[in-house]
Amino acid sequence: MLLYDNAMLPECYAVRLLSGLLGVELDLKTVDCYPGRQHREEAFLAINPLGTLPVLDTGDAFLRDWLAALVYLAARYDSSARWLPTADAGRLAAVQEWLSIARLLQSSAGAARLHDSIGMATDIERRRREAHDLLRMTEKHLWFGERGGDDWLVAGAEPTIADIALFVHVILSEEGGIARMPYPAVRRWTERLRRLPNFALMGGVFPMPALDASRTLLSETECQAASAQSATH
């Protein structure tokens, strides 16, 4: 499979990250969006009239949406249905809900990052407020999930493509002026993802060392601090 890719776009990173976790090799074709604007050239628009990245060429079709590419990779290459729980209607619906939230993060945190990195025109303060609203919601969800023994966005023992979709925008949020420090449960969740085997790197994103099994999930102080924060948002 061929991925039309740009190394600095979170949406492209999501596809590379999931393919690495699945052990699927992709051929990469770099498209220079800035300053080259190759995504607006006739040759690329013939592949994707929307002029957006990534595009995944499966050999049978061009997938022009990054979330569709995640669904495709999980459905085709994960026989265990770990990443896309198709046999469990409730969990599958929950994955879809979080994919919708990932789309909102793309238009808020993602837009803020493009504003700060390449000067894309947007209402930057509004984008940052929207991103913080989503992070506060995610923080509450993850914090209460941890209390119930769940490590991931969708209840269950394993992460899903929902975790991948949110992760790529959350982990790069500070490049758009959106701090992660106020969200301890979100930060712990990103660390869990970064400890997964075959975690793929991106500029500014690195794997985490193995967790010391002797360390408890949350100290009493951390629990109290997270509880107080959740109560205020």
Tell me what the CATH architecture of the largest domain is.
Up-down Bundle
Strand proportion: 5-15%
- Rg is 18 Å
Low-confidence stretches: 213-227, 229-233
H and E order: EHEHEEHHHHHH
**Could you say what the CATH topology of the largest domain is called?**
Glutathione S-transferase Yfyf (Class Pi), Chain A, domain 2
Number of strands: 4
Q: In one word, what is the shape?
A: globular
Query: What is the share of helical residues?
Result: 40-55%
Quaternary arrangement of the chains shown? single chain
Structural class based on helices, strands and sheet pairing: mainly alpha
Give the termini distance in whole angstroms. Answer: 44 Å
- Total number of helices: 8
Output the CATH class name of the largest domain.
Mainly Alpha
Mean pLDDT: 90
Q: What is the topology, as strand order, of the major beta sheet? A: 2-1-3-4
Count of the separate structural domains: 2
The major sheet is characterized as: 4 strands, mixed
Pfam family, one: GST_N_3
Organism: Sphingobium boeckii
InterPro entries: Glutathione-S-Trfase_C-like, Glutathione-S-Trfase_C_sf, Glutathione_S-Trfase, Glutathione_S-Trfase_N, Thioredoxin-like_sf
Protein name: Glutathione S-transferase
